[in-house]
Write a structure and sequence with these properties.
This protein has 194 residues and is α+β, with helices and mostly antiparallel strands. Helices cover 36% and strands 13% of the residues. The protein has a domain at 37-152: HIT family, subunit A, CATH 3.30.428.10. Strand 1 and strand 2 (65-69) form a beta hairpin. Residues 45-152 form the HIT domain.
Amino acid sequence: METRRLAVLFSHLHPVSPRAGLARTCFSPSNCVSDEKRNQQNDCVFCKIIRGESPAFKLYEDDTCLCILDTSPLTHGHSLIIPKSHFSCLEATPPSVVAAMCSKVPFIGNAIMKATGSDSFNLLVNNGAAAGQVIFHTHIHIIPRKASDCLWTTESLPRCPLDFDHRASQLVNCVRKQLSNISEEGKGQESSLS
């Protein structure tokens, strides 16, 4: 816990991103945020669960994250891993927090599969409104699956193989350029690809 407090303090003194305010608004509840941001956190259903103000079926908890049953499950055992600090989207979530959340997936996912008699599970992040995010507090879905459950209608759609053509090459170059631009902004994420 002391390490987290020092990380929060350090993030205020030495922001990791040159974009104005991003590092200052990532941590909660004890951070320097605007009244508007604080109101968003006060109204956030996940923040209320973390503070003990709203009920939830907790499956797992540590200093960084909490795993709860989804209240509108797609399948029996559909669960959510949420960070204990408020981050509105994946981009705003520090890599160390994402890593902590993801490191719990095999442990929690296997327990959920055994408890539900599932064969496997989907791991899903809806990042942004267009992707279906409705609660703007970063979270990872663990959705238990059984063979032939037909949960996703797209599973029955035929898949088209990737054409190794100019269009695919352009996409690769564009993504690599964006990754390079992000690395130059000080995110510390560099690829060995040129």
